[in-house]
UniProtKB/TrEMBL annotation, chains A, B:
<comment type="similarity">
    <text>Belongs to the N-acylglucosamine 2-epimerase family.</text>
</comment>
<dbReference type="InterPro" id="IPR012341">
    <property type="entry name" value="6hp_glycosidase-like_sf"/>
</dbReference>
<dbReference type="InterPro" id="IPR034116">
    <property type="entry name" value="AGE_dom"/>
</dbReference>
<protein>
    <submittedName>
        <fullName>AGE family epimerase/isomerase</fullName>
    </submittedName>
</protein>
<keyword id="KW-0413">Isomerase</keyword>
<dbReference type="GO" id="GO:0005975">
    <property type="term" value="P:carbohydrate metabolic process"/>
</dbReference>
<dbReference type="GO" id="GO:0016853">
    <property type="term" value="F:isomerase activity"/>
</dbReference>
<dbReference type="InterPro" id="IPR008928">
    <property type="entry name" value="6-hairpin_glycosidase_sf"/>
</dbReference>
<dbReference type="Pfam" id="PF07221">
    <property type="entry name" value="GlcNAc_2-epim"/>
</dbReference>
<dbReference type="InterPro" id="IPR010819">
    <property type="entry name" value="AGE/CE"/>
</dbReference>
Amino acid sequence: MNYSILYKDTLLKDILPFWERYSIDTQYGGYFTCLDRNGKVYDTDKFIWLQGRQAWTFSMLYNRVEKNPKWLEIAKSGVDFLRNYGRDTEGNFYFSVTQKGEPLVQPYNIFSDCFAAMAFSQYAIATNDDEIKELAKTTYFNILQRIDNPKGKYEKNTSTRPLVGFSLPMILSNLVLELEGVLSSEEVNKTIDYSVNQVMEIFLDKKTGLVFENVQPDGSHDNSFNGRLLNPGHGIEAMWFMIDIGVRKRDSKLINRATETILRILEHSWDKDYGGIFYFMDASGYPLQQLEWDQKLWWVHLETLVALAKAYEHTQKDEVFNWYKKVHDYSWSHFSDAENGEWFGYLNRQGEVLLNLKGGKWKGCFHVPRAMFQCWKSFEKIEANIQKNKLND
Amino acid sequence: MNYSILYKDTLLKDILPFWERYSIDTQYGGYFTCLDRNGKVYDTDKFIWLQGRQAWTFSMLYNRVEKNPKWLEIAKSGVDFLRNYGRDTEGNFYFSVTQKGEPLVQPYNIFSDCFAAMAFSQYAIATNDDEIKELAKTTYFNILQRIDNPKGKYEKNTSTRPLVGFSLPMILSNLVLELEGVLSSEEVNKTIDYSVNQVMEIFLDKKTGLVFENVQPDGSHDNSFNGRLLNPGHGIEAMWFMIDIGVRKRDSKLINRATETILRILEHSWDKDYGGIFYFMDASGYPLQQLEWDQKLWWVHLETLVALAKAYEHTQKDEVFNWYKKVHDYSWSHFSDAENGEWFGYLNRQGEVLLNLKGGKWKGCFHVPRAMFQCWKSFEKIEANIQKNKLND
């Protein structure tokens, strides 16, 4: 099979048309993300994560695929909405707002700011707009300022058990590359070093080879629900961020360690009974607090496809490609909706559709198109390489 | 089948021995609630809801079943733990603490206070201890003071969409009867009137006959995720609180309306494919935010058994008994663990065990023993009534 064409065609002829057709709010700007199986809007609330992520997606594709003015217009709609309605008076981004932009849920969650910064940065590259560039920078430094207490007054945990979470260092390792255009190279290198160290030395456990979701600041483990928690999709996603950094730094050791970690997490979290990757696991095998632990989520599988494609592109190991094939077959046969386009988001353990939606509070125009783009580009290189080797034979 | 004996025997010979044997922390006081299928402790954190609920259960059984000194000692252990480690300096109850009692999660959740108040009140009845009686009263009035902003500074919702939640008025309708011994009858009657009005006029929707989890303060509906949310178990549980109040007030109209509502909710939320009652539903049939929506939870089914037993006790309607039989057969064949005792808590939609535990963050020594006790007592009356009718024939 020609994978690069599959991913390219799906991105350009299925995924993007779906969001172009159904998600645009022509009245108030920004995007609807609560779309049912057919693309019909079933709720009009706007979740800031997803506003930022969709604005980023269309800006990124404009920058890296095609200077399509329609894509830029769609990106602008989200960027304007975020600028006008996304922030409180202190410049922190809300979690959600109404269709018109009235604040609904306070800025308790710093990832709203991360995805807004990504959107501003890509849009600034597309338009060369200095004001937006400045906004990307301000948002980024505001995130760094909040890094030790990202939830602010909404933090419910006391200081009794000072665990640190994986999400923020993980996101930073991707965000900083997204913001290369607006940050000094000194700042970029500093944050890369910080996040690689956090991900590979603090959160990646030497003994088990698994990435823990919460650890003590020195990386040691805490025998509690949060301390035992594994989020396989997060761990695997972070590894393709590490491969990107490895490529940038020409650090083949980092690429190899990331590749090994992907395989290790997959072996540990693949559901041997029904296929697919578990959403959450407990490192000691104890019962979890997350009732949704055994479900199969779209983003987990798409991030794994990206990670395996990149790992194969750079290592050419058969073991990596065998896993790629396995995850590919599961994902494309279970998540892709041939009838109505786009991908389902949530399957039960058995692989049946659990929520009949294409978008909601957490699923928007992001993981599917980003993975399609990343896999397309990786397979283009993989296939060109195979072609070259054939010619050399 | 003699149901009263089934419930009595299960309570006294299976459920209580399980918690007596495995849950007592003889070192630091209070209870372990994270117990695996065999009763082994897999986590030592103490969740204040469950500390209060277990102290209540053993106090209540001491008061209403048997003056068993062992039960009183178990109750005392939890009451002492709550007094010593449960509260912050302002008298608000934490959500969770460590095994030793160090605070872990702040008092963002007022239900900790509700279950502590219930425990103090029952324990005060058992011991006639004035200090504990006073503590029950103080805790109750602190809850009333916080009623308009129960989450305090941890409230993440803005005032844009002022929805009110069902849980608090629902709990109050039960809590106030639990606190009859320590409150003035004026206070009791005021809170009964308030909560009956809230439950039956504000949250119970006249048009659909369903109880909504979140409504606008005047009871009108909001077309949003929270505004469309149904929690069938909550609605049904509240109806047996209404029946208790109906009995107390000799209000047969209230008992009949509660009975009709139980049947209506059951018809709407029974899973016609796999049996059991859904955990969450969307009133418009849209996709939910709750990924666990289709799971079958122990407490939902136990509260339904109590509600149907009470409804049948007071109305003797065949339709009620037919539903009772259906829920009984599903519940006893799916949740009860004949091999290791007690009940499983979480099943997937298909009715298979999802989490192999007897207790955790939310499941403790409460719903199972309370339902066993309530059903035992209801069926004693139902069976005595049948016997009487036979003799009169």
